[in-house]
Structure formats: structure tokens, C-alpha cells
Amino acid sequence: MALVEFRDVTKVFDVTPTKDNRRVRTLTVLDHVNLDIEQGEIFGLIGYSGAGKSTLVRLVNALTPVTSGSIKVGDVEVTTLKEHALQELRRGIGMVFQQFNLLNSRTVAGNVAYPLAVAGVKRAERDARVAELLSFVGLTDKAHAYPDQLSGGQKQRVGIARALANHPTLLLADEATSALDPETTQEVLALLRRVNAEFGTTIIVITHEMEVIRSTAHRVAVLDEGRIVEQGEVFEVFSRPQSPVTARFVATVIAPPPSGDALAALHAQHPTATLVTLRFDDTATDQTHVYRRFFDAQVTFELVAGGIEAIGAHRFAQLTLALTADNPDALADIPSLVGAGVDVEVHA
Ligand SMILES: Nc1ncnc2c1ncn2[C@@H]1O[C@H](COP(=O)(O)OP(=O)(O)OP(=O)(O)O)[C@@H](O)[C@H]1O
Ligand SMILES: [Mg+2]
């Protein structure tokens, strides 16, 4: 069941005119966006800076009003909610921010207690909940510390504990790891995965880093200049990107096949060989099968570039091979030689 549903959502900002340009300009930041985010999943939204990601998440809890279209959270249409109902909606949605947004004058425990106090939770219950949350994020011993005594990773764990205080069904994480180093990023992402697995919280992860999507999300949408250009299972998108923007993101974690100088160098090193790049995904076929066919056709091969990536439960291999054969006929039809289920690119 979809927990969050966007139908034809468009957001246009009026851009304040400057002194020398008095005409009011408008900026379309989201352009007919359609999305279905399923209950219980981690949904990744990736896009370059300015693509409209933060605007999109702010529409979910109606921090920004839509220009047109419909947004549902559960069975509530959020675009027409009045103040009281809005507060109720927001109580069920946790937010985690890039800059943590902690209150520096309050202790760690005080920060986590804050949304509980706002919701009117009684003191004793509040203390118990804070203790439970700090234990969950591994910061029990920091309960009385102040934010500026914490590392970035610890601050974000406080941010996550605070976001979970009122048992949200949905967690919005807007660039939650962008201010952190790679190792701390992985710790925070592991915590988000635990939140999802243990509490069943639906999480929307906003990022400009494909690595964050790869290690965290079940499904992903690619946002480019306000449009969703691609969406699907993370593995599908990684292994078969359809749009150029997606391919650029994928290339940051899976090196593309050699081209240009790198390809020329390989040709120079293997002058008698035919260079091919094979893309295997373990849902379709296995490598052994292909190597056995090479063996049967008396084709020898050497791995010259590429790699194997784990994406969720799957493995995706993109391997460049130098193929040689005494009998040139053996290499006349490489796709047939390789067989079905493998994507083949022959490098001229
Ligand atoms: N309140 C606003 N008024 C006018 N324009 C805005 C407003 N908020 C955002 N924009 C513009 O909307 C576009 C998308 O901004 P948004 O913050 O959603 O992008 P983003 O994908 O989150 O970028 P980043 O990765 O840098 O955080 C930008 O061009 C931005 O300047
Ligand atoms: Mg943003």
C-alpha cells in the first residue's frame, strides 16, 4: 500500500524581482511529479543540487504549499489540510536534517524530549521514552552532554532519536549524511536501516550521493530539474540506467566501460584481441555459464577492466575482457557466443 502518493504535483515559486528587473519571474521547481512510496520501504530520492529534492520533501508535511496536484499521506490529502489537522500530520512525520538542527542550549536528553513535551507527553513517560531512544541510538552515556560536545555522527544520532520520539510512521531524511565523513555516513545509514527494520518506519532518503542510495534504499527515483526521470528498484536502476542523468549517478559507484584513452591503451596492450564489456546480473545468468561457452569455442580470455558490485541482495558485474581465438570465426558473432541474458558491448 502506498503511504505517500504524489499525483501531478507541480510547484512554482515566484522569484522576487530585483531592483533593476521589476518583472515578477516564476520558477517551476517541480513539474508534474508522480510518486508512490510504499509503506515500510526505504525510498531514495536522488538529484543534483537545485533539482528540487528539498522542496519535494517539504511538500510532504506541507511546510511548503503545492501549486497544483495532489499529495496523500496515508489516506489524508495534505494539500488542503487546516492548521489543527496539519499539526497532527506533522506529528506522525519525523525529519532529519543535514545540519542536524539541534538546540544548542539543551542537553542531548533535552533535545530528544522536546517534541514529546510539545506533544504534551507527561514527564515520567517522556523520561522513559528518552531513555529508550538514547539506548536505541547508542548515546545513553551522552544524555547530559550538550550538542557542541558531540561529533557530527553523534549529533545526527541525536537528530534521529528526536525524529523518532513520537513514533512517526514516516521519516524524512534530507541529506542526513552529507555533512559527515564516509565512515560516519555508513554508521548513520546503518542506523536508518535499523529504524526501518525494527520499527517498520517508512523512510524517504534524499541525497545527491549514489552510494547512499546503494547502501540504504529499496527503491529510488531520480529527480532532474523538477522532473522524475527514472524510478524503480535500486538494482534495476543501477544495472540498467535509462536516462543520461541516472547513468552519470551510477557511474559514480560503478565505473563505466573503458572509453577514450583508457580504451586506446587496452587496445595497444592487446593488439590481437577483441575487447568486449559484459554486464552480468545475478538475476539473469551466471558468469560460469559464459566462460564455459568460451572454453567450448576455444576462445581464450583475460579480464582487463571492470568490477563486481553488491547492490542490496544482488550482485552486478561489469567486466571488460580481451578475447582471442586461433580460429577467427569463433569471434564472428560475439553476442551469440556469449549467449542470452548477458549485455554485451564490443569495443571497436
Ligand atoms: N522559497 C523559495 N523561493 C524561490 N525559489 C526557491 C525557494 N526554495 C527553493 N527555491 C529554488 O528551487 C530550486 C530547487 O531547490 P531545492 O532546495 O528544492 O533543491 P535541492 O534539490 O534540495 O538542492 P540541494 O541539493 O542543493 O539541497 C532551486 O533553484 C532553488 O533556488
Ligand atoms: Mg536540498
Question: Would you give an account of this structure?
Answer:
The protein has 348 residues and is of the alpha/beta class. The protein has helices spanning 53-60, 83-91, 108-118, 123-136, 152-164, 182-199, 210-216, 234-239, 244-251, 260-269, 287-296, 334-338, and strands at residues 2-15, 25-38, 42-46, 68-73, 76-77, 93-97, 170-174, 202-207, 219-224, 227-233, 274-281, 299-311, 314-325, 343-347. Strands 6-7-8-3-9-10 form a six-stranded mixed sheet, sandwiched between helices. Helix 3 (108-118) runs parallel beside helix 5 (152-164). Adenosine-5'-triphosphate binds next to strand 1, strand 2 and helix 1. Magnesium ion binds at residues 53-54, 174-175.
Task: Write a compact overview of the structure shown.
With 348 residues, the protein is α/β, with parallel strands linked by helices. It has helices at 53-60, 83-91, 108-118, 123-136, 152-164, 182-199, 210-216, 234-239, 244-251, 260-269, 287-296, 334-338, and strands at 2-15, 25-38, 42-46, 68-73, 76-77, 93-97, 170-174, 202-207, 219-224, 227-233, 274-281, 299-311, 314-325, 343-347.
C-alpha geometry: elongated
- CATH top-level class of the largest domain: Alpha Beta
Please state the structural category.
Answer: alpha/beta
Q: Which fold name fills CATH's third level, the topology of the largest domain?
A: Rossmann fold
CATH A-level architecture of the largest domain? 3-Layer(aba) Sandwich
Low-confidence stretches: none
Largest sheet: number of strands, sense, barrel closure: 6 strands, mixed
Question: Rg to the nearest angstrom?
Answer: 25 Å
* Cofactors, ions, other ligands: adenosine-5'-triphosphate, magnesium ion
User: CA-to-CA gap between the ends?
Assistant: 48 Å
Strand content: 25-35%
**What's the rounded overall pLDDT mean?**
93
Number of helices: 12
CATH H-level superfamily of the largest domain: P-loop containing nucleotide triphosphate hydrolases
Give the strand order of the largest sheet, numbering strands 1, 2, ... along the chain.
Answer: 6-7-8-3-9-10
Number of domains: 2
N-to-C order of helices and strands: EEEHEEHEHHHEHEHEEHHHEHEEHE
